[in-house]
Amino acid sequence: MTDCIFCKIVNGELPSETVYNSPNVTAFRDINPAAPVHILIVPNRHIDHIRDPRAFEDDVLKEMFQVANQVAEMEGIAESGYRLLFNYGPDANLVVPHLHLHLLGGRPLGPMVARR
Fold it and tell me: Which terminal residue of the chain has fewer beta carbons within 10 Å of its beta carbon, N or C?
């Protein structure tokens, strides 16, 4: 996909602070962090979102979760705890249509969703 910002980051066309890279998955710091540690973990090939059937091929999700755990260790938040989050659709505020897993931590994160 030519207009995808995450594809451009994976391909080195846009700068990022990459913290992990493998042939299948890249992890980089979010440019608008919601926590002291906010890292995005993306498949290197374009997959639109968590409901895209390609997300379930080739152990993509498995590797994304493995990378999340490894990066949490590297960032020093594995023991204190962290949150893993996928967004899907406008109600969840999905901004970039490329499958990505948020790794958040480094402080108490509070409840998952604000109650209204």
Answer: C
User: CATH fold of 5-105, please?
Assistant: HIT family, subunit A (3.30.428)
DSSP type of residue 97: S
Break the chain into its structural domains and give their ranges: 5-105
pLDDT in tens, the chain (116 residues): 579 999 999 999 999 999 999 999 999 999 999 999 999 999 999 999 999 999 998 899 999 999 999 999 999 999 999 999 999 999 999 999 999 999 999 999 988 876 66
Which of 46, 49, 98, 100 is the catalytic position?
100
Examine the residue annotation and report whether 100 is marked as an active-site residue of this protein.
Answer: yes
